[in-house]
Specification:
Elements (H helix, E strand, L loop, with lengths): L15 H25 L2 H7 L4 H4 L1 H24 L1 H20 L4 H30 L4 H29 L4 H4 L1 H15 L13 H24 L5 H23 L13 H21 L1 H9 L4 H29 L1 H19 L8 H16 L2 H9 L4 H36 L4 H5 L11 H33 L24
Helix pairs in contact: 1-6, 1-7, 1-9, 4-5, 4-6, 4-10, 4-18, 5-6, 5-9, 6-7, 7-14, 7-17, 10-11, 10-18, 12-17, 12-18, 12-20, 13-14, 13-20, 14-15, 14-16, 15-16, 15-17, 15-20, 18-20
Length: 508
């Protein structure tokens, strides 16, 4: 077993002890990330089961996201205060209990509430997993660590829709949550046996005021942004009041953090040029790629007429492409810097997304799958190298807060991207006198569906609406090249503080 305080081995390969730890971390992360995509295919089932609108059941996903955003800022401090292994196991228990509670939900309100409990546990699993992995692997192997941690990000989008559709078809919606019980039990037992023990090391007092400002601020801001697709306009009081109050709290936190010696999130990290460039690049990339990525299954289902399970299978090439390039990118980024790798990945994403700007109702499926494969290859060269670029120049003391900062950026950018692309698509459909429901019913026979003579026109107009939405994402991907050109294009030498040379990296 690798001691949490032992230096990483000299070899740049991940040894057996580290790989054992990685298996535990990946299992927990897969469970958390898979749960997001599994639920995405059950929204229609929830609407029928609880006799409520699609907009209401969509909050089963939004509530989970808001819980993630709320808990991430305090994870770094809590890991120091209570110990990383102990907190990781607590997060697993919370997630599993939340999953069981979700399966027992009696109405949509209780389900949304239990999703919050699930999100509080799930939100800690990925940052804590990064902490555990980087402590075991050491600073010279950050790229490879990121490649390993990228596995759940690949398997979630591939396996989630397929698993969710299959469980709902052969069992019931309850099993998309109950499946976490045996997986969680295995992960908990493995964590207890394999993860290295570490003692709590509270190095600073908890920034309570910072938590009161930032966590509710993020939750309210993301609540407002996430409400835009449902209400259909930014000018809604629900959007403006929630996002406005959240923004005020976040701004207040900024002023507080710049004055406090040990803030919840250290904004002075932005003085590090490389981290700042990585944050800007990551934000633009996630808004475009993740926002558009959620629309691909909708296109296959609504315009292509595929089932949910088929749409999940059609998305698999994207994950397979990323699975091919991510391990290679992880090895290369440790040797030649993130800039060259990211600037290789972005053109691939641009090409793949460009294909989707030209979609039609009769576009060949093989062509769209090939475009997704190319985009996946680009994603494998982009996401984890950006994370590596952000943290590799930070000292051990800074890395904990730097990783927390990057997690918040990813969560916020993802929510903004989802809202932006959803609003663009909705407006594109309205400009063509269509709604999402009308497009979805185009494949149904009369009298439920439209007149057969209008089906081709509806699907053609819907395809144009999706194509224009993907064009917005393509433009944002192109803009990502600007900050990406300032990323390092050679191996970065890590600045080590005095007395810090043998200490392992920590990330939260």
């Amino acid at each position: 077993m690798t001691s949490p305080n032992a230096p990483a081995p000299a070899s740049d390969k991940l040894d057996g002890a580290v790989l054992k730890i990685a298996s535990v971390v990946v299992l927990g992360a897969i469970m958390s990330i898979l749960d997001v995509t599994v639920v995405s295919v059950a929204l229609t089932t929830f609407a029928e089961e609880f006799d409520t609108s699609y907009a209401t059941v969509a909050w089963t996903m939004t509530a989970y996201t808001l819980a993630l955003a709320t808990v991430i800022p305090v994870t770094g401090w809590a890991a120091d205060r209570f110990g990383t292994k102990r907190l990781y196991m607590t997060a697993l228990v919370l997630f599993v209990l939340g999953s069981v509670a979700c399966a027992m939900a009696w109405d949509i309100t209780s389900l949304i509430g239990f999703r919050v409990l699930q999100g509080l546990g799930g939100g800690m699993l990925m940052p804590l997993g990064m902490t555990i992995m980087t402590k075991a692997a050491g600073p010279e192997r950050i790229g490879r660590v990121m490649a390993v941690l990228g596995i759940p990000m690949l398997l979630g989008p591939i396996g989630g829709p397929i698993l969710g559709g299959w469980l709902i078809e052969v069992a019931s919606w309850h099993w998309i949550f109950l499946i976490n019980l045996p997986i969680g039990a295995i992960a908990l037992a493995a964590a207890f046996k394999i993860l290295p023990s570490d003692k709590p090391q509270p190095s600073e007092s908890f920034d309570f005021l910072g938590m009161v400002l930032l966590s509710p601020g993020l939750a309210l801001f993301l609540f407002g942004v996430s409400s835009i697709p449902e209400v259909g306009t930014v000018a809604s009081a629900r959007v403006l009041v929630s996002a406005g109050i959240g923004l005020v709290l976040i701004i207040a936190f900024v002023f507080h953090a710049l004055r406090k010696d040990h803030p919840l999130i250290d904004l002075r990290l932005f003085k590090n040029r490389q981290l700042s460039v990585a944050v800007i690049t990551t934000s633009l990339f996630i808004v475009a790629f993740m926002g558009a990525g959620l629309l691909f299954p909708s296109f296959f289902i609504q315009v292509g007429g595929h089932t949910t399970l088929e749409a999940g299978l059609l998305m698999a090439p994207q994950g397979l492409g990323a699975m091919l390039t991510m391990p290679i990118a992880g090895r290369l980024v440790d040797k030649m810097g993130a800039g060259k790798i990211v600037l290789t990945g972005l053109p691939l994403i641009l090409i793949g997304m460009g294909v989707f700007t030209q979609v039609a109702s009769d576009s060949p499926t093989w062509m769209l799958m090939a475009a997704l494969f190319v985009m996946g290859m680009g994603m494998g060269c982009t996401m984890m190298p950006l994370m590596t670029a952000a943290i590799v120049t930070l000292s051990n003391e800074q890395i904990a807060r730097g990783s927390t900062l990057m997690n918040i950026v990813q969560q916020t950018a993802g929510s903004i991207g989802t809202a932006v692309m959803s609003v663009v698509l909705t407006n594109q459909l309205l400009n063509r006198d269509l709604t999402s429901n009308e497009v979805g019913m185009a494949h149904l026979p009369p009298p439920v569906g439209p007149d057969p003579s209008t089906v081709d026109s509806i699907l053609s107009s819907a395809a144009d609406a999706f194509g224009n939405t993907f064009l917005v994402a393509t433009v944002l991907i192109a803009l990502t090249f600007i900050p990406a050109f300032f990323l390092p294009r050679s191996k970065t030498t890590r600045v080590v503080a005095e007395g810090d040379s043998a200490a392992p990296i920590m990330m939260h």
